[in-house]
Amino acid sequence: MAGRHIDLNLLRIFDVVMLERNMTRAAVRLNMTQPAVSNSIQRLREVLADDLFLKVAGGVVPTTRAEAIWPTVRASIQSLSQTLDPALFDPSMARVSFRIAMSDYVASELIRPLAGTLFRTAPGLSIVLHQNMLDNVVPDLTEGQIDLAAGVIPHQGDRIRSILLKPLTYVCAMRRGHRLARGKLTFDKFMEARHLEVSLSGRHSLIDRYLTDRGMHRDIALTINQFALAPDLLCETDLIAILPTETVLNAANSSELYATRPPIPVYEDSVSLLWHERNDDVPAHRWFREQLLRHFEQ
């Protein structure tokens, strides 16, 4: 590409196609025709000497080269937009998208109660939720694969910003007719029961590390990766589970569940919001973060 200039508009179109992974959806967002988007990507392919996108069922997937250049392209577009138009972000007029990694529990506490207000305030807003895979959060934020992450995320990189959203409390839950729902739940009774575990990573929790360090193991009958499934499963089985308090209180069948204090030390956790430092002063990003924070300050 020596000696050739790149039309900056091609990079803007490239950015949207990377976000949407579909030429037709990208065209709608850009207010262009689908052939015009495809032609623009073809021009960029010729300049960069790379396919950039490969067709698959339902859309396109980026090549390795496209994945490599996207974080820089996206950060540059955001920085340039801020420089040329430093005015306050106007959500009522903006068309902006955010990709956020979070568990279904965090989504139920954050996105569900906020969605109506967000979309009324910002009609052009779009949100794509990604499963919160703890090991990938920092690399994905760094590489621009996601814009934000929310959850109990212990490992943070040097250039990752974070702010506390809310503390977490836990209960030990079971169906109301469970034999352990009568009387005090002792440690021995807890260890005799069969357990349901929620694990986003598939690995055992801090509870199990606590037990393992003391030469003990609980009987985990079922491991799932969605908090929303837990209340129904508890109602239909004799399993017990340690869950966030809100998961039990907000369940549709909460009246069928019994919750008590866990008879084992449960490490204090908190839900945090994470983003990369390059987005600190991006107006749209800052506005969105403020909406999430305000929800928990009320």
UniProtKB/TrEMBL annotation:
Domain HTH lysR-type: from-to ranges: 6-63
Gene Ontology MF term list: DNA binding; DNA-binding transcription factor activity
Keyword Chloroplast: no
Pfam families noted in UniProt: HTH_1, LysR_substrate
Keyword vocabulary terms for this entry: DNA-binding, Nodulation, Repressor, Transcription, Transcription regulation
PROSITE patterns recorded: HTH_LYSR
InterPro entries: LysR-type_TF (IPR050389), LysR_HTH_N (IPR000847), LysR_subst-bd (IPR005119), WH-like_DNA-bd_sf (IPR036388), WH_DNA-bd_sf (IPR036390), YidZ_PBP2 (IPR037402)
PANTHER family for this protein: HTH-TYPE TRANSCRIPTIONAL REGULATOR LEUO (PTHR30118:SF6), HTH-TYPE TRANSCRIPTIONAL REGULATOR LEUO-RELATED (PTHR30118)
Similarity section: Belongs to the LysR transcriptional regulatory family.
Name of this protein: LysR family transcriptional regulator
